[in-house]
Automatic annotation (TrEMBL):
Name by which UniProt lists this protein: SET domain-containing protein
Domain SET: 35-172
First and last residue of the signal peptide: none
PANTHER family reported in the protein's UniProt record: SET DOMAIN-CONTAINING PROTEIN 5 (PTHR47332)
Transmembrane segment boundaries: 7-26
Gene3D superfamilies, alphabetized: SET domain (2.170.270.10)
InterPro entries hit by this protein: SET_dom (IPR001214), SET_dom_sf (IPR046341), SET_domain_protein (IPR053185)
Keywords linked to the UniProt accession: Membrane, Transmembrane, Transmembrane helix
Superkingdom, natural source: Eukaryota
Pfam family, one: SET
Protein's organism: Clathrus columnatus
Amino acid sequence: MSTSGKLYFSAALALGISIILFQLYGRGWPFGLDVPLDIVNVEGRGRGLIATRDLPQGYLILKENPLFVIQAEDLGRRLPSTLSNLDKTDREAFFQLSFPSDIPNSDIPEAILRTNGVSIRSNETAIFRLLSRVNHGCSHATNSVLSWRDNHAVLYAIRPIKKGEEIFREYVPSKFSRKVRRDNLEALYGFRCNCPVCLLSPVETEKSDIRLSSIATIEAELYDRNKLGKEEADPKELVRLAKRVWGLGETEGYWVGRGRLAEEVSTIAAAYHDSDACRQWARLSAEWYGYELGRDSNQTLRMIQISLNPTSHPYWGESRKKTEIGGPDE
Ligand SMILES: *[C@@H]1O[C@H](CO)[C@@H](O)[C@H](O)[C@H]1NC(C)=O
Ligand SMILES: *[C@@H]1O[C@H](CO)[C@@H](O)[C@H](O)[C@H]1NC(C)=O
């Protein structure tokens, strides 16, 4: 290579490296992750995250490693050592998370954990820099779903989210009346829910309460697996119930759990040897698991498998009766 060739080569290399560094670090906090989110103060809810642009349904909003994971039991003893094991930036990030204002200094760490902890398995709570800041939203306020994958969490948009809209997820299921939801959240997380659904007018609240309670009651009956395949079960009645839940959810704008709901019907179809119905419901389930948990989630892949080969369903032919139960559009 000539001297000028070498010079051009070095210049190109330097430019390339700068571009890579800019991509990695130049996009601001946190550490160059290109997240379409902003942390803002929101009236009545402390701080929250808002979308900085329109996000389509099924969009992966965030993928984040926790600052730490802690056993939910025996917190008092575990928390101080967990915090002292964090490096300085992570510890600072922890203390920047929100907590109720009327807390004595000595209780702040536990209050932060209680307010920001994300339950990731039956026994474990995780704290995240960003995900911990997603506020709880009841019913149709919920526009995202968080799920845990081995060592990190993902947050997907369950419906299209507009630029400037706050991101909400459910800390606890919200298929309860407003009063029950608020009492649950106060007992578990120490805050009074002021999500848009809890702030509806009394008339709207009553309508929404009736829909949510009906959804809960019908789902409980539907998910009672023991009924499947038993002689007294009426598969067509079960499918009617599932469609009723789907319809109530549509009116309410509450879409969480649709993947599982459609999976349930695909299971009924499988148990009663209806391969066409099983295929269609499994496809619908895969679509909704895709929005909630990601198109690469195990649930989505499992339902795609079943839609391609209904007889591979673990409940295939569980009942001796054959029944045509019909697809989602019938
Ligand atoms: C929770 O953690 C404790 C202590 O590590 C363990 O003994 C127990 O089996 C766990 N429970 C569940 C439900 O995982
Ligand atoms: C699928 O399940 C396996 C085993 O439980 C787990 O290790 C893996 O992370 C899961 N993958 C996704 C994408 O959820």
